[in-house]
Amino acid sequence: MLRNSRVPGRWLIFLLVLVRLPFSLRRCRPAAVRHVLVLHHLLLGDTLMLTSLLAKLAEQYPDAQLQMAAPKASAPLYIGHPYRIDAIAFDPRDVRTIFTLLRQPRPDVVLLPADNRHSWLARALGARWIVGFAGDHPAWKNWFVDELRPFPATPVAWPDIVATLIDGPPPAAHVTDRWPAPPHMPFTPPARPYCVLHVGASTPLKRWEPDKWRTLAAALTARGLTVTWSAGRGEETIVTACDPDRVHRSFAGALDLPQLWHLLANAALLIAPDTGVAHLGRLVGVPTVTLFGPGSATLYGGGDFWRNAHYRAVTTDPFPCRDQTRLFGRDLPWVSRCARSTAECPAPRCMQAIDTAMVEAAVDELLHRPAQPAVP
Predict the structure, then answer these.
(1) Alpha-carbon distance 310 to 25, whole Å?
(2) 21: pLDDT confidence band, cut at 50, 70 and 90?
(3) What is the band of 2 on the pLDDT scale with cuts at 50, 70, 90?
(4) Sign of the Cα pseudo-torsion (112, 114, 120, 124, in order)
(5) Chain Cα centroid distance, residue 58
(6) What is the model's pTM?
(7) Is 261 helix (H, G, I), strand (E, B) or coil?
(8) What is the CB neighbour count within 10 angstroms for residue 192?
(9) Cα R_g (the chain), whole angstroms
């Protein structure tokens, strides 16, 4: 019961900080870096966008042990040690995962890509140097951060921003060979060539209308692709609304992340809202079209690290209510996004502004095919 609560973990971290505090009042950057830990607890998409930081770590510290605390659901994707990273399953509500981190070698450097509250855990782990981004609130989150790095003053993609947590030139662009495919339980894939339409999202405000998905499925079928539906567990009804007659095969709720990896890796095309699955598609190398509604295509739609990806972002930009400037608790004037809840926004007008013709045009451009007339 206790391991599913944040309270025991917080007390454990607090007590360890008190024990280590007298020994860490005078701190300096370690001259030799032998062990680096990337510490966070982000959702799938944000976790995968840290790949640019992992790539840069592998380049800048070729002889160091590189570890990353990853959410339990994402950790299986890292079994093949991409970019030499050893992923450790971490959940602040599970005290056992904190003890797992405590059993690791004392880190020379801990990098905090998002929430600086994890600096308390970094100090509890005995980190010699803690680096995070400036501007996190409230101030107590930053008490144990030794080095606060600024965010850029002009628009930059998030994967390129997070790589600035360490010194050195930008990492080389991602190539799929650097990320070994994770082992998976066998499943029967669709007939090739097939495309995957992932219709689920973390919030209803990122979902596209079912009738548009249905129209798009007909258009892709006309292009000779076998349409396959995808969604997460509990999202099966979304697929039913898109395909009430069950014309196309659905994997909604049926695959774990390693299986989904292999489904995408062998697909001819992926179309998805701005979700973790869209970032997974870009990672495995499948041609990917992402629909951006409340999210920012500038922040999450590409960047220098993903410059070789077969990828297109579809969005209406600017959009009047995509007017919030917060990113991971920091206020950045150049950011343009929306993180409103369904209570604040009753209808996703930003997603409704995307029509099927825009998506079909992106598909034809991505697959280097001549444009097809819209299917009514």
Answers:
(1) 49
(2) low
(3) very low
(4) negative
(5) 19
(6) 0.92
(7) helix
(8) 10
(9) 22
Q: What pairs with residue 131 in β-bridges?
A: 111, 147
Nearest-angstrom CA–CA distance, 68 and 82: 11
- Do 119 and 142 form a contact (C-beta atoms < 8 A)? yes
Whole-angstrom distance, CA of residue 376 vs CA of residue 373: 9
Asked whether the predicted pLDDT for residue 290 surpasses 90, the reply is yes
Query: Amino acid identity of 10?
Result: R
As a whole number of Å, the end-to-end CA separation of the chain is: 54
Check the CA dihedral 307-45-329-325 and report its sign.
positive
pLDDT of 134-174, one tens digit each? 999 999 999 999 999 999 999 999 999 999 999 999 999 99
Q: Are 206 and 293 in contact (CB under 8 A)?
A: yes
How far is 229 from 254, CA to CA, in rounded Å? 11
Maximal C-alpha separation, the chain: 71
- Burial status of residue 246 (CB atoms within 10 A of its CB: 0-12, 13-18, 19 or more): exposed
Give the dihedral of Cα atoms 330, 282, 69, 340; nearest 10 deg. Answer: 30
Instruction: Give the tokens for residue 120.
Output: 């308390």
Percent of the chain with pLDDT over 90: 86
CA–CA separation, 158 vs 162, rounded Å? 6
pLDDT at 90 exceeding the cut of 60: yes
Distance (Å, whole) CA 201 – CA 374:
26
The per-residue pLDDT for range 198-216, each reduced to its tens digit, is 999 989 999 999 999 999 9
In contact, 146 and 129? CB cutoff 8 Å: yes
Cα-flanking dihedrals φ and ψ of residue 257, to 5°? -65, -45
CB neighbour burial string for 60-81, b if at least 16 within 10 angstroms, e if fewer: ebeebbbbbbbbeebbbbbeee
- Cβ neighbours, 10 Å, residue 298: 20
pLDDT, position 350: 97
**Burial degree of 209 (CB within 10 A; 0-12, 13-18, 19+):** middle
Residue tagged 């258009």 (tokens) = 219
Q: Which residues contact 186 (CB under 8 A, 6 or more apart)?
A: none
